[in-house]
Amino acid sequence: MPKFIIEREIPNAGALSADQLQHISQKSCSILKNMGPYIQWLESYVTDNKIYCIYIAPDEAAIREHAEQGEFPVNRISQIKTIIDPTTSE
C-alpha cells in the first residue's frame, strides 16, 4: 500500500498546546476508525507553521476524504517513493 506525506499549513502549529494536539489526534483517530483499516496514520511532525503527516492509504482520495471529514487542511500530498537513511550509504 502506498505511503504519503501530507503537508498541512496551520499558522502557529508549533505553539499548539499538548491538550490541543491531543484533541486533534483524537479527532483524526475517530475518523480513521470509521473509515476502516485501509487508511492508517503513522506519525506527524509539527513545525512552526505546518504539520507533516505520514499516512498509508490506497490513494490520495482517501487522504482527502479523511481531511474533509476532520476539517483538516491539506496543502500538498506527496507519495513517498522510497526511504533512505545513513545505512543506505553502506
List keywords for this structure.
single chain, alpha+beta, 4-stranded antiparallel beta sheet, 29% strand, 2 helices, 4 strands, globular, 90 residues
Structure description:
- It is a single chain.
- The chain is built from 2 helices and 4 strands.
- It has helices spanning 18-35, 60-70, and strands spanning 3-9, 40-46, 50-56, 76-80.
- A 4-stranded antiparallel β-sheet has the order 2-3-1-4, with no helix packed on it.
- The radius of gyration is 14 Å and the shape is globular.
Radius of gyration: 14 Å
Number of helices: 2
The coarse overall form would be: globular
Number of strands: 4
Q: How would you sum up this structure in a few lines?
A:
This protein has 2 helices and 4 strands; from the N terminus they run βαββαβ.
How do the strands and helices of this protein lay out in sequence?
Elements: E1 3-9, H1 18-35, E2 40-46, E3 50-56, H2 60-70, E4 76-80
Antiparallel strand pairs: 1-3, 1-4, 2-3
